[in-house]
Amino acid sequence: MSIEGVPTIEPLAHAFDELPLRPSALFDRAPAIISVHQGPEHVYLYMNARTELVADGRDLLGRPLIEAVPEFKGQGIVERFDLAFRTGKNQRAAEIEVRLPARDGALRRRRWYNHTVEPWHDGDGRVAGVMSFAFDVTEQVRSRRAAQASEARLTRFLDAMNTYAARLALDGTLLGVNASALSLGGVAADDVIGLPFWETYWWSHDEGTRQRLRTAIEAAARGGTVRYDETVRTRDDDRIVVDVTLAPERDEHDRLIAIVASGTDVTERVRAERALAESEARFRVITDAMPQLVWGANADGVIDYSNEQMRLFAGLQKVGQRSFLWTELLHKDDREGAADSWAAAQAAAAPFETEFRLLHHTGEYRWVLARALPLLDGGEVVRWFGTCTDINRIKTTETHRRLLTDELNHRVKNTLAVVQSVAYQTFSDTDAEALAAFDGRLAALATAHDLLTREAWEKAELSDVVRTGLRACGVSEDRYTVSGPAIVLPAKLAVTMAMAVHELATNALKYGALSVDEGVIDVRWREGVGPAGPRLSFLWTERGGPQVVPPDQRGFGSRLIETALANELRGSAHLDFRPSGLVCTIDAPAPQVRRPPRPIR
C-alpha cells in the first residue's frame, strides 16, 4: 500500500497480501469503523466503508487525525490514539459517547462505541502507527438506559406508594425492595437484599409465618399467584396484618424470571371484620336467648335471619335456614290487614306494629304481636329488624274475659230491669215525678255500666262520661259543647261522675237552660298545678235559660254532687245558682292516670 508523501509499510502490506481477501473487502465486511493510521499525528492510511459515518463526505486519507476530523478533539479519542502510539499498548474504552461531525463542522448526533486502538510495528519492531476499531453499541446503550430509567421511575413510583413491594429471585432471594417496606421494618436495603425473603426482619417473629411465606414463594416460582393475609413485624416490634400477593414475573418469551411480592396494610379492615364477627356472634347469642321471635328482613320484607325461637316456633330448623316472605306464615284472614300496615310502614320508613296469627310448627295459628324498626341509609330503608311476641295466651284470656264480662253485663242489666220493675210496683201510688227521677238515675247507672264494660271496668275517659250522660238524657249535640284535655277516671269515680252529669242534665232539662229552646250548656275542664300537685278543675255552665232562683232546700242531686262526688274526688264541688244560669264548679286532685295510651300505629 503506497500513498504519496507517506513511506510504504512493507510488513503491513505483506500481511495484507497473504490474506485470502483483500483488506478493503475484509474490513468492509466488519461490523465496525476501522481505520489505519501512521506516525504520531495518526495520518489516515486506510479506512473501511463504515468510516464514512465519521468522514461525512470528507477526504480523510493522507491527513492527520486532528486535521481530518477536528471534532474528535476534546472527546478523549485523540488522547487514546496518542497513548497507544506512545506506549505501544492496546487502549480500550467501553461505551464511549461520541459526537459525530457534520460537513459544516457541527456535532450532529450522539452515538456510543466500544473503542479499541492497537499499535502496529515496522520492520524494525518500532511502533509505526495505530489501528482503530470502533463498534457501534448505541442501541444497546439506549435500550439499557431506557430500561434503567423505566426501572428508576418504577422504583420512585413504588417508593411513593404506601404499598409494600419487593422483587425476588425464583429461589426466594430478595433482589430489591421499596422504601415503604424498608421504613415499615426500620431496616436498610443492605441489611436484607441477598437474603432469603422468609429470613428477613418482617417475618422473623414466627416460624409459622416464615413457613407459610416460603410455601407461597415456591408456588409462585412454579407460575402460580398466591394471595393471603399475614401478620408482619414492624420496626417497633409491633404487628400489622398485610394482604400479601406473590406473582411470577415473565420475560418477553414468557419464561419465569423472578417473583414480584406486594402487600397492603389491612390491619383496620381485619379489625373491623373481627369486630363485626364478634358483634354478630354476640347478636346471635343475645337473640337466641330471648323468648321473643327475632327476625331480620331486607327492604322488601324477605326474612333472611331468624333466631332460635323463631326457627323452633315455625319449624324452620327442620328444613334449614332459608329466606322467605314473612306473609307466607300468616293466617289467610290476617294477611290483607298486616300487608296494609306493612306497606304503610315501608312508605313512611316508620316503625311497624300489628297483631296477627302466625303459623306454629304444630300446624295451628297463634296470635303474635309483631314490631319492627327500619334501618335507614340516606333516608332509604335498607333492612328491617323485628320481633314477634307470642300473645296467644293473652288473646285467649281476653276472649274468655270478654265472654264473662258480656255475661256479667247481661245479668247486671237483668238485675237493673228487675229493680226497675219492683220499683214501679212498689212506688205505683207514689208521686210520678219521684218515680221518674229514680228511673232516670237507674238508667244513668246502667249507662255508666255500659261505658265501663267497654274498658273491662277499669277506667273511662271523662269526655266519654260527659257526652254519654248527656245523650242518655236526650240532649242533642247542638245544645252543648264539651272541651278539655284527655282525662282518664278510675271506675268508681267514673260511676259517681256519670250520676252527677245525669243530675245536672236532668235539672237543666226541667228547670234550667235546656228547658227552653235558646238555652245551651258549656262543659269544660282543665289541668293545673296546686301546692299538693296536679289538679283538675271542672266547670258546668248554663246559658240562655230562664232566670234561676236558688232552691229553698237541697235535693238528692245537689247532695250527690256537693257531698258524694266531692268525697269521691277528695276535693270540692259547688253549685252556684246564678240568675243567668246554674254553674257547677269542681276542684280536685287530678286522677293518677290522666292520658290514654297512644294508639298503635
Q: Which strands sit side by side, in order, in the main sheet?
A: 13-12-11-16-15-14
Oligomeric organization of the protein chains:
single chain
Overall geometry: rod-shaped
Count of all domains: 4
Radius of gyration: 56 Å
Superfamily (CATH H level) name of the largest domain? Histidine kinase-like ATPase, C-terminal domain
Largest sheet: 6 strands, antiparallel
- The level of helicity is 25-40%
CATH architecture of the largest domain: 2-Layer Sandwich
Count of β-strands? 23
- State the end-to-end CA separation: 119 Å
Keywords:
601 residues; alpha+beta; Beta-Lactamase; 4 domains; six-stranded antiparallel beta sheet; five-stranded antiparallel beta sheet; 17 helices; 23 strands; disordered C terminus; HATPase_C_sf; receptor; transferase
Brief overview, please?
The protein has 601 residues and is α+β, with helices and mostly antiparallel strands. 38% of the residues lie in helices and 30% in strands.
Question: What's the helix and strand layout?
Answer:
Layout: H1 10-17, H2 23-28, E1 33-38, E2 43-47, H3 52-55, H4 65-68, H5 77-87, E3 91-101, E4 107-121, E5 127-136, H6 138-160, E6 164-168, E7 174-177, H7 179-185, H8 189-192, H9 207-221, E8 226-233, E9 239-250, E10 256-265, H10 267-289, E11 293-298, E12 302-306, H11 308-314, E13 324-325, H12 335-348, E14 352-359, E15 365-377, E16 380-390, H13 392-426, H14 432-453, E17 459-461, H15 462-472, E18 480-483, E19 488-490, H16 491-510, E20 520-530, E21 533-543, H17 556-569, E22 572-578, E23 581-589
Parallel strand pairs: 18-20
Antiparallel strand pairs: 1-2, 1-5, 3-4, 4-5, 6-7, 6-10, 8-9, 9-10, 11-12, 11-16, 12-13, 14-15, 15-16, 17-19, 20-21, 21-23, 22-23
